[in-house]
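From the pipeline queue, job 12 of 40. The input is one protein chain; the requested action is below.

Action: predict structure.
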Amino acid sequence: MNFKTAILAGTVLIVPVTATAMELSDASGEPVGTVFTMEDFSQFSPSTALDMVSRIPGFAIREENSEERGLGQAEGNVLINGRRVAGKSLTLRDALNRIPATNVEKIELVDGATLDIPGLSGQVANVIATVNGVSGTWEWRSRFRENLPPYLHGGNVSVTGRQNTLAWTLGLKSNPIRGGATGPEYVYDANRNLIETRDEDVNNIGDEAGISGALEWTPLNGSVANLNAEYNIFQIDTREISERFPEDGSPARFRRFNNAEDEWNSEIGGDFEFALGPGRLKTIALWRFEHSPVISGVRTIDENGNLTERSIFEQTVDEGESILRSEYGWQPAPGRDWQIALEGAFNFLEAEAALQSLDGSGVLVPVPLDKANSRVEEKRAEINVTHGRRLSGKLSVQASLGAEYSELSQSGGASQTREFTRPKGFLSAAYEVNDKLTVNAKLAREVGQLNFFDFISSVNVNSGNGNQGNPDIVPQQSWESEVELEKDFGPAGAHTIKFYYENIEDIVDRVPFGPDAEGPGNLDEAKRYGIATNGTFKFAPLGLEGLQLEYELEARKSEIEDPLTGETRRINDDLILGGFFDLRYDVPNTDWAVGFGGERFDNAPFVRLDERHYFELRPVYTFLYLEHKDIFGMTGQIEYFNVFDADEQFTRQVYTPRRDGALLFREDRSWRAGPILSISLKGSF
């Protein structure tokens, strides 16, 4: 989680559990995982399946990649009743949050390579849940920040029921957005002489809300059918006010930047699985659409009332995706499984944009934009064959081989059609050294998803720069490898450590277009490697019952050749070092709990051809919370965020004519985010 996520959406607290879980064995009696039941989480009074899964020692939820090409093979690490969470918009956390804890029979923690679902690796949590009668979950959230209006309407509610073979779910959610910061910004010339002082005030106020529904049909013949639909809105207004005082005695200026987005999106998906011959056939269909009008403008007036700057950029984008996927799987013998999958997809993005700016006489006039009004389409088909096998009581492997064909076309300023064929696949393995240590490994050939916004031109009126659309971008490809060790220390906790390496071809970065334009484009290659660890320390063996620490930490290095200077640098905005911790104490023999935690993520600078900027959090964002687990059957929490009043530090360096030239000026910003108070209640029925 980065600072923007914390400011706009809130801090996600993931707390561990003191569990006495059972061992899960296969038909031959070999251990294949661990089983958790409601009793293992009773001290936390969980309301939902999310409360339970989030508290499994040493386990961190890994979401499906919503930006992945089509549906593809599984990437998340949570299953519900042995099946993937279908869809692109529904997150694993949202899906788990809809399941009342009382409906969860057990949670099986197993190694992904031992399952018959292609793509899974490492620890996977399989939530076994049943629906009987009508039940539901709910949560209410409020937030208070200085210099911002509070919100009292955050939360969600989900109702689930079953009538014979038909189960249904209806959900509502509201995620208000209240973000902001204030502070000074200083502008220096190339010799570090102060040339301007600015007093800055920025805030983001918006709302995100949605309604969703799902149907599940499970007739007695063993077939399974699902239908899901959701509709969401996202509305946000950003305002940045800057009072500017030049050091040379020039008139002071008042600058205001506004940006507004009024988006709606919808998704409908379904699947049907049934027995066919020696195996089962599953067909999945999905359609989603997003409409996003955005308008941004900047206006500057000096102290004499003269208008010195005025620009307006308007853009309306429609995006859509349609997917049809079929999977046929069978098990010729115990410990062996096969799957053949076919998938077809159609994606498009259509943009209309206009820019207006002051001319020399102070009149607002249209500015031509090349490739800003354009439509991009991709038609794609892929096939995969996957085989999983348990080679021994301790070693399981899964291998997949496939290929994809895609046709890219663009119209409006750049009319062309291109075709690509790419191989893809993976080999993964899980080796159970003993009942406390498992080693997982994976080698994969991946094809990356295209960002269709890279094909069209856009303008950032606040920064005074833009992106030149590039119709020649191709999908990036990569070799990805990882080795993961999972160690269970019993009553003392559990920990996971992962080493990974990526070799990326045709990576998208900033490239020059002519002498003064730039935009996204493909570079030959890049490398990324690092180490990530997460785990739970439980202090009960030391006599500190109820005290535990959960953490995540990742260190990463990346290398790419800068297209302007030829020097090796990190990938733009790539993680360098980051992590969080949460120290929680559940007071024995009471319903009270207290916690303290923090987070910090340091990323590499983002470089354009004429500038370099980077962001830091100093020193670390911290939070305190007090929780009561039985307020008339509800769980209540008060959270105080940004305990040590950390600041957002931002530096921007602008060069002329480009980064291989002279430094033109430097902006140094120090913004205070201020404290945040949050109050929440949740429960089930």
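Job complete. The two ends are 31 Å apart (CA to CA).
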